[in-house]
Amino acid sequence: MSILTIPTQPFSDQKPGTSGLRKKVPHFQQQHYLQNFVQSIFDSIDVPAGATLALGGDGRYYNREAIQIILKMAAAHGFAKVLVGQGGILSTPAASCVIRKFNTYGGIILSASHNPGGPAEDFGIKYNTANGGPAPEKVTEAIYARSREISQYRILDAPDVALDVLGLSQLGDMQVEVIDAVADYADLMAELFDFSAIRALLASGFRIKFDAMHAVNGPYAREILVNRLGAPADSVMNAVPLEDFGGGHPDPNLTYAHELVDIVYGEHAPDFGAASDGDGDRNMILGQRFFVTPSDSLAIIAANATLIPAYRNGIAGVARSMPTSAAVDRVAAALNIPCYETPTGWKFFGNLMDAGKVTLCGEESFGTGSSHVREKDGLWAVLCWLNIVAVRQQSVEAIVRAHWAEYGRNVYSRHDYEALPTEAANGIMQHLRAQFGTLPGSTLGSYQVASCDDFSYTDPIDGSISKAQGIRLLFTDGSRIVFRLSGTGTDGATVRLYLEAYEPDAARHCLDAQDALSEMILIAGQVSELHARSGREQPTVIT
Ligand code: VG1
Ligand code: CO
C-alpha cells in the first residue's frame, strides 16, 4: 500500500462556524473538498509519534464515505491508531468520552448536529482536541488559514476498512480499532448517576418517553434507559438511527419534536418526556404537559446538583453562553460560586472546565453539560433530571415551580428568523450597531435602555479575545434583548433574537412566556426594523 500525494486547489469557504464546518452534502462531495479540510486539520496540529485519533459521526448521509477517507488520510499522517465507533457511529458526547478515556491525541467528529440529513441536506466535520472538547478558535483559525493555501493532500491507497465488526485491523502502518460506540459512554453515565434510585423510580410506575428522533442517540438511550435502568422498551421512540433522520429535523424543541410533544401533552401523557438532536448533544426536558426552558434546566440542575452522586460534594462554578438566561446566575450567587458568561458555542467552556473553574455549563439552545466530558450532553441532562426527580419524589413541574418561587423566574424566549438573504441579516445588525450612540438612556415603551454593546469575551485562562459575539440591549430592570447571527446554518443567514425579563412575582409565574414578553418582542422588532428588513412577519421557530 502506498501513500499518494494528490495535487489540489484551495476552497475559499472552509471557515469553521460555531461548531465545525457545515455544508450541504453535495458541497462536501465536490472533488477534494473533504480531503482538503482534513489535510488542513492535520497540517495545523503536530501529530506526535504513536498518536491515536478518535473518529465517529452521527450516522447521517455521507458519514461512512467520510470515515473511509479520513481513515486513509490518518494512515498517511503518522497516526499509530484510530479508534472508530462501530459502523462509523459516535454521538458527540460519546466521542468526547472516548478521547478522554483513551487519552487520544484528539478526534474528528462528523455531524451537522440538529440540521436535517440526506443526499441534499447537511453534513459537517469538526476537530476536537485532546481534552475532548471542540478545538478553540486559535486552532480553527489555523485550520481555516491552512485551507486557503493548501496545494496537496496525502492519502493511503488502500481498500475500505470494515467498520461493522468490533476489533483490530491494519491500514498500512496504522491500526484501526472498531469499538463499541455505546459501552464506554454508558459506563461513564453509570459512574455519575444514582442508577439504583432511577431504576426504583422507573419500577414504581414513573413513565418516561425519550424521542431519539431517528438520530444517533437511539442505541445509547436503549442501552441506558431500557437495558440498564429497566424502562419499558417503548419508552424510547424513533430509536433506529437513519441516514436522513426519517426525513425529520432532528432538533429537540417544541416545533421539531412535535411527535413527542403531542404525546407528552396528550391524554395518556407520561410523567417525563425528553428528546435529543442529530448528534446527541442537545436535550429537551418535558414534564407531564410541561416544558422546561433550557436556561431553567441548567439553573435547576445547578441548584440540585448535590443530589447527584458525581456532584455530591458541590460544584466549583457554572458557565453559560451570553444569550442564555441569567437564571443560573442567581443559583450561583446563592451557592456563592463563580458564574462565567461566554460567547455562544461549547468551545468557550473548555478552558474553564480544564482549569477546574466550572463544573456545569449550558446554553439556551438546548445544550447542557458538565466536566465529565467536554461537549454538551443530551442523555446526561436527561439522567440529571431523572436522578433529581428520583431523590425529590416530585414531578418535573413541581420542581420547576418551586425553583421559580425561590429564585424568581427569568422569563425567556428565542425567536429565529431562518434562511434570510445575507445582506438583509447583516443590515439588521448594522442598523442596531448604528444606534449604539443614541439608545443608552432612551425609553422604549415601558423599558429604559441602560446600555448596549457588541459582546466581547476575554478568556480568563488564556487571555484570547473574541469580539462581535452578539448585540445586547440591556434595560435598567435587568431585562435584555440580544441579536445574533447564527454560525451553524447552511442556507443564507439566520437572525436569532433572544428575549429575557426577570419576574420576581410568583403570582405572575404562570404566564405564557410569549405573553409575558409581548412588549419586548414589539420593541425588538421596532428597534431592529426586523420585519421590514427581513420581509418576514413571524419568526421561523420560537423556542
Ligand atoms: C447554535 C446554538 C449554539 C450551539 C451551536 C452548536 O449555534 O445557538 O448555542 O452551541 O448551535 O450546537 P448558532 O451559531 O447557530 O447560534 V450543535 O447541537 O449544532 O453542536
Ligand atoms: Co448537536
Written description of the protein model:
The chain is of the alpha/beta class. The chain has three domains: 3-181, Alpha-D-Glucose-1,6-Bisphosphate, subunit A, domain 3 (Alpha-D-Glucose-1,6-Bisphosphate, Chain A, domain 3, 3-Layer(aba) Sandwich); 185-407, Alpha-D-Glucose-1,6-Bisphosphate, Chain A, domain 3; 409-542, TATA-Binding Protein, CATH 3.30.310. The chain has a seven-stranded mixed β-sheet, with helices on both faces. The chain has a seven-stranded antiparallel β-sheet with strand order 20-21-24-25-26-19-27. Helix 2 packs across helix 3. The longest helix has 15 residues, at 378-392. It is globular and about 70 Å long. Alpha-D-glucose-1-phosphate-6-vanadate (VG1) is lined by residues 18-19, 113-114, 277, 281-282, 321, 344-346, 363, 365, 367, 486-488, 496. Belongs to the phosphohexose mutase family. Its EC number is 5.4.2.2. Residues 1-21 are annotated as: Disordered.
Brief descriptors of the model:
18 helices; Alpha-D-Glucose-1,6-Bisphosphate, Chain A, domain 3; single chain; 543 residues; TATA-Binding Protein; seven-stranded mixed β-sheet; seven-stranded antiparallel β-sheet; binds alpha-D-glucose-1-phosphate-6-vanadate; 31% helix; binds cobalt (II) ion; alpha/beta
The CATH top-level class label of the largest domain: Alpha Beta
- How many strands, what sense, and barrel or not for the largest sheet? 7 strands, mixed
Strand order, main sheet: write it out.
Answer: 2-6-5-3-4-9-8
At the fourth CATH level, what is the homologous superfamily of the largest domain?
Answer: Alpha-D-Glucose-1,6-Bisphosphate, subunit A, domain 3
